[in-house]
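Table S2 (text version). Query chain:
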Amino acid sequence: MSVKNKGAAPRISKRTIKSRRERRMLMIARRLALSVIILAMLVVILAVLFMSFTKPEKMVTQKMEEIATDYYENYFYDRIKDYNNLDSYVENGFSRVTLRQLLLFDSERHADAASLLNQYCDAEKTYIRIYPEDPFSKKDYHIDYNYACTF
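Corresponding C-alpha cell output:
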C-alpha cells in the first residue's frame, strides 16, 4: 500500500521562482512604459488640437461667420423677403455690411464678440457682402467676406 501526500506542494527551484519574479517585473515595466508613451501621445494630440482651435485667425473667422449668418437669416431676410426684385441682387449682392454694423444690429445682439473682433480687425474696413440665390429662401444665399485684420 502506498501513501500519497496530498498536502505537500510540488518542489519549485529557486531559479524558477526568480525567473517568475523577473517575468512579472518585466511585464509590469512594459505596461508602465506603454502607458507613459500613450499618455505622452495623448497630451501632444490635445495640445495640437487646443492650439489649432484657439488661433486668433480661426476664432475671428468663425465668429464673423456666425454673426453674418445670424444677421442674414434672423434679421435682414425678414426685411427683404417680400421684395419682388431679388433677382437684381443675385449678381451684385446687397450693399456691403461692415463689421461695426454687424456688431450693432438688433440692439447690439453680438456686442460680446466686439472685443475679440475689434482687437484683430478694423471695424470699418472689414465687411461682408450677401448674395441671394434662387429660390430666395432664408437659407439660399452666400456671403463674401473681406477681412482687414492683423493676426
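Notes on Table S2: The first strand starts at residue 97 and ends at 98. The mean pLDDT is 88.
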